[in-house]
Design a protein that fits this description.
Length: about 220
């Protein structure tokens, strides 16, 4: 099991490096966020043992059940929230996560800011953009994204480090990633969280600084029951 995790991790890192070399020079720094959602602690632990420290979870409750015990053994873990955040979970999210990637509306921005102020935990955040304009997806509309980043910073005082997106299924992701990169430049942020198991190399080719890789590392996700 440990050997599997180490070799999976090495394989993905090798692919990231190849994609970086194609994009560069200079090769950008790319952070691998290992998306451990739906995988139990005993499936995640071998990746910690193999040296991975940055993980993504999409549900507050699941992360709360899974991570405190793992963190006791691996205190330098950095947890990213990559799923939608309900305002009634803001307090728990700020206590548990180290980066929030899914800031996508005014009310959430304001509540996150208030909670960070209160708790003294000022977390780096990404604004999630609904890059394909899909009804079923979270994210701020593309034509509001630049102004929203400005309000998150200037009105709410959030530390917005970049933009995040999930492009539409079944279409080439490249043009969507390119659009996100343009919006980030216009908004004056440098972080770009884009690319998952199926398209992280495309993300890197378009300038991703963070890729969120789940199934290519951990295997097929168990069905949600
Ligand atoms: C599940 C998830 C991922 C990882 O997806 P894979 O295709 O398994 O790599 C990345 N980002 C978000 C927001 C997710 O919900």
């Amino acid at each position: 099991m440990d050997a599997d995790a180490a070799s999976q991790l090495a394989a993905i890192k090798g692919r990231i490096q190849k994609a970086q070399e194609r994009f560069g020079p200079p090769a950008p720094d790319v952070t691998l966020v290992a998306v451990s959602k739906t995988f139990a602690a005993d499936a995640v632990e071998p990746f910690l043992a193999a040296g991975q420290r940055i993980f993504g979870e999409n549900r507050v409750q699941e992360a709360k059940d899974k991570w405190p015990a793992l963190r006791e053994r691996y205190p330098d873990v950095q947890l990213h929230l990559i799923g939608p955040l309900q305002t009634n979970k803001v307090r728990e999210a700020v206590a548990l996560f180290d980066v929030i990637q899914t800031v996508d509306r005014e009310k959430l921005a304001s509540m996150l800011a208030a909670e960070m102020q209160k708790s003294g935990r000022k977390l780096p955040c990404f604004v999630q953009v609904n890059i394909g304009g899909e009804d079923q997806k979270a994210g701020i509309a593309t034509d509001e994204a630049v102004a929203f980043v400005a309000r998150c910073r200037d009105v709410h005082g959030l530390d917005i480090v970049g933009l995040m997106c999930i492009p539409p299924d079944g279409q080439p992701a490249g043009p969507y990633f390119a659009h996100l990169a343009t919006l980030a430049r216009d908004a004056g942020v440098t972080g770009l969280s884009m690319g998952m198991s199926g398209d992280f190399e495309t993300g890197i080719a378009m300038g991703a600084t963070h890729v969120r890789v789940g199934s290519a590392l951990f295997g097929t996700r168990p069905p949600i029951v």
